[in-house]
């Protein structure tokens, strides 16, 4: 039956299309320095196309056998469920912060685009790629604008206990527009044992402008009594 056969030119076109579309999505991830980048997305998209081509045309020799019922969607369904393990490997959790979710989702949609290209659903594959690239490039900037007011940073400051800089430090943060959500002050036990008493100050601050935060940190480093400083981003 002709429906179970495909020409070499058509097959090559579908595989090249899958390679190009997967590369477009991977290019954005590569620019962002993510764990799954250009080559990974190409391989996922291309591999999905190969599998759906195999599912549709790889068993054409058995199409006329009355005891065989071909299902071109069977292997494709396994790709959609199986790609999850690769996406899970890109998700990282560091304390309260979770990263890699967008990359995992981009791998999943790359598999879907590869299946579409391999099945000859050209318009769906191309328009999906355009929408995905727009989402990653354009919506990423919009998301950052809306998330600025939700950004929470943690500060760990080590200061000399004898200094009078704690009050000055808090006043400085307020002047920079940083809202203090949480504050804790502890005496460093190790330093107390040696006779040099230091305070460990933990702060969670909410900021609206990253530039203001950078300016505040730069001034804190040079502040009298400050002997150590660490900062990290937290999930809002």
From TrEMBL:
Alphabetic keyword roster: Cell membrane, Membrane, Transmembrane, Transmembrane helix
Topology term for the membrane: Multi-pass membrane protein
Domain MgtC/SapB/SrpB/YhiD N-terminal: 15-144
Domain of life the protein comes from: Bacteria
InterPro entries per the UniProt record, alphabetical: MgtC/SapB/SrpB/YhiD_fam, MgtC_SapB_SrpB_YhiD_N
GO cellular component terms given for this protein: plasma membrane
KW Transmembrane helix (keyword) present: yes
Residues passing through the membrane, by range: 12-28, 40-63, 75-91, 121-140
Subcellular location: Cell membrane
PANTHER family per the UniProt record, alphabetical: MAGNESIUM TRANSPORTER YHID-RELATED, PROTEIN MGTC
Family: Belongs to the MgtC/SapB family.
Protein name: MgtC/SapB family protein
